[in-house]
Amino acid sequence: MLFRPIKALVPRDAGGPAFNQTAFGEARGPAILLTTINAKWIHPSLALRLLKANLGSLEGDCEILEFALRQPLAEKLGAILSLRPRILGISVSIWNHAATLELLEALEDGWAGKNAAEGGPPGPVVVLGGPEVSYLPEDAEIFRHAAYVIRGEGEDVFRELCAALLGGGNPGPARFIEGAPADLGRIRQAYHYYSGEDLARKLVYAESSRGCPFRCGFCQSAASGRVREFPLAPFLAEMDTLIKRGARNFKFLDRSFNANTGRALEIMDFFLRRIEAARRAGASLCVHFEMVPGLFPPNCGKCCGASRRGACGWKSGYRP
Ligand code: B12
Ligand code: SF4
After folding, report:
1. Domains and CATH numbers, the chain
2. What is the pLDDT of residues 94-108, one digit of tens each?
């Protein structure tokens, strides 16, 4: 049982926000739509791709729709309304909280108008997740627009919730569901969901570990407590495939990339070899890590060389 209800809230209707399949009429788009508003167009969301990749038998019933903060509300609204999914999962982060709230309010109006006109169904089941909603108090305004809120890591609980909602099962009475830390050796990677356009024109976000060993009081990542790592060999194989597919600009999401120095060196060495190969072929390959200054390995001179050429960047020090 992966659901760990934080608190069984009194749901909107007696009996909970239960899903009634027939209430949604004929779906026009995918059964599950995953969406988010990225900070900029060049920042793709790895979270949405991971959630889709880990939906099990429902993976094929899920589509991803990404927006950027600067896009007008009407564009986001029109795209979502035209799809009419049964479940709408939205990833909420600090940069899109206000814009997501605005979108949710507009969607509710849109569904009310559209469905009244068509004599039809209410909107989809809205599920919110992401770092921002993981820590907000339960009376936050944004939660008024959601049937469910998944806090913490979503791969396992989102699959279970969708399966219960779409399969006619009972998702339980809790609206706020805490996702347990995923087993990184077991969850499916999602790098194949970066499109050719993503690889050619956007940053390619890569995640080799989750969590941070430090406890900085101002930082959300401090709550994670410990670092968990994706198994190295399959991870590097994924990176290799991405480079072969044309990825040129990697950015690691790891909070403290060099928390495990030996492993960090292996990953850096992997990229340095490919940076050199790209350079010899007249191409460019860049990779960016966020490092702990005190843990810089003494033998990372080669990487400094690549850094001077602009191929390998690192960021260290204060970084919320
Ligand atoms: C990439 C990134 C950015 C990118 C934006 C990426 C984008 N897509 O647009 C950039 C560089 C622009 C950025 C900027 C900032 N960021 Co930032 N960023 C990150 C970073 C490094 C990675 C996010 C990520 O992709 N993680 C990997 C995915 C897999 O994890 P995840 O998003 O948490 O998703 C999991 C769960 O949350 C959940 N989930 C997520 N979405 C959904 C949706 C549903 C439906 C469900 C069920 C579950 C679910 O399941 C996922 C898988 O387990 C995180 C730190 C981190 N490593 O997570 C900080 C982080 C998100 N950023 C943070 C901060 C503070 C900022 C800044 C305010 C920093 C600053 N002072 O300027 C700015 C704000 C920018 C702005 N314009 O206002 C904070 C907190 C944000 C928050 N409360 O939402 C974080 C957590 C770092 C920290 N300090 O701990 N950031
Ligand atoms: S500021 Fe950096 S080192 Fe400190 S807890 Fe957050 S991610 Fe870890």
Report:
1. 6-179 (3.40.50.280), 203-316 (3.30.750.210)
2. 999 999 999 999 999
